Structures are given as C-alpha cells and as structure tokens.
C-alpha cells in the first residue's frame, strides 16, 4: 500500500502576488549542486546544519528520498527554483514523540535557499501553497509545525494562516515552537481568504 506521502501529486501551483508558485519533486542527483549551494548559504547554515561535503550531503538525501513517510520538493517561483520543502506524516516522524499524533496529521519544513528572495515576503505565499497542497491532497485535519522558536518571521506567517502555537518543545538541535493548524480554521483564515475569498 502506498503511504500518504507517496500518494501526493508530483506537481502543484498557485497564483499569488502576480507570480506562479509551484512544487516539483527533488530530482536526484540532478538537483544536488543546487541543494549543496543552498545548504552552504550563510542564511541557511545555522538553521539546517547540513553544510556538509558533497559526498555526505548526497548520502543524506539518498536516505531522505528512500524514506516513505515524506516527499521532498523544490519550490519554484515563475519556474525558477527558490527553495526546498519536506512534506511528511507526523505520526511516523520523530515529531510524534512530542505530541499525540493522529495517523492523518501532516507536517512540513521549508528552506528558502535563493538569497535573492530572503526577507522579501516569499515565505507567506510559499507557506500558503504548501498548506493548501496538503489539505487538498490528503485527509489531514491538522498540519503540525515545529520551527525554531528564535525564527520570528514564522510567527507572522503563522498568524495569517491560523497556525496556533501550542507550547515550546526541546528537540536535540533546537527549542522549537509547536504549531497546530486545523483545516477549517485555515480555510477561514485571513491569509487564505485574501487570496481565495472571492471563490472560497
């Protein structure tokens, strides 16, 4: 039986801010030079801690791609790669050690790798896209997030799309803010309705 994430479509896109934001699967090994560049970017190193030599980074992504509880995608803006995301099943992830996960709960991680888009408002439309993607293509009633509590920009995006902080959790590499986003609240959030209010 395919897993929840194996059943996710390969591509997805939305129109936001007069741009097209899209997802496509990570292509191995073709995307490795780009992922290597992003993982070694100054704004990424501390948060992701994957600034490894290429052989070790390849090994890491080989394991990630073989893990059937998650799917790895590149984030595109007008067909240009700008970031990377991991969409995963929380009940089969280490996050399930920190809260009582349901089988349908989903989560995601995001990396905006292109320095040209960092701090330029791209996190909001990409967060919208990934959340919409999950709710449209799975039976998830809840999306769970665990960003580093020190990354304040997530709070702004979280408030827009009904991601509610539950508590702080101590993970091996960070103190994370545990967020829950319920499907119904997301669809009624001001962030979602600002894009889809006319047709939602």
Based on the model shown, name its key terms.
single chain, 200 residues, alpha+beta, Aminopeptidase, 8-stranded mixed β-sheet, 8 strands
How would you describe the overall organization of this protein?
By secondary structure, the chain is α+β, with helices and mostly antiparallel strands. It is built from seven helices and eight strands; from the N terminus they run ββαααβββαβαββαα. An eight-stranded mixed β-sheet has the order 1-2-3-4-5-6-8-7. It is globular and about 45 Å long.
Q: Into which percentage range does the β-strand content fall?
A: 25-35%
- What number is the mean pLDDT? 94
The radius of gyration over CA amounts to: 16 Å
Main sheet summary: 8 strands, mixed
Computed structural class: alpha+beta
Q: Total number of helical segments?
A: 7
Q: Any guess at the CATH architecture?
A: 3-Layer(aba) Sandwich
Along the chain, the helix and strand elements come as EEHHHEEEHEHEEHH
Taking pLDDT < 50 over at least 5 consecutive residues as the criterion, the unreliable ranges are none
């Amino acid at each position: 039986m395919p897993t929840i994430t194996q059943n996710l479509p390969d591509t997805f896109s939305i129109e936001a801010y007069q741009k097209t934001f899209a997802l496509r699967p990570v292509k191995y090994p073709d995307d490795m030079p780009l992922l290597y560049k992003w993982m070694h970017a100054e704004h990424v190193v501390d948060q992701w801690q994957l600034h490894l030599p290429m052989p070790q980074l390849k090994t890491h992504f080989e394991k990630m791609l073989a893990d059937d509880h998650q799917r790895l995608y590149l984030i595109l803006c007008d067909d240009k790669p700008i970031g990377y995301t991991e969409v995963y099943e929380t009940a089969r992830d280490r996050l399930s050690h920190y809260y009582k996960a349901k089988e349908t709960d989903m989560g995601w991680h995001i990396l905006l790798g292109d320095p040209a888009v960092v701090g330029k408002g791209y996190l909001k439309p990409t967060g919208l896209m990934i959340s919409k993607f999950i709710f449209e293509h799975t039976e998830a009633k809840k999306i769970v997030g665990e960003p580093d509590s020190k990354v304040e920009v997530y709070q702004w995006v979280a408030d827009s799309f009904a991601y509610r902080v539950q508590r702080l959790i101590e993970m091996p590499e960070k103190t994370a803010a545990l967020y829950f986003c319920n499907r119904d609240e997301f669809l009624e959030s001001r962030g979602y309705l600002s894009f889809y209010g006319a047709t939602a």
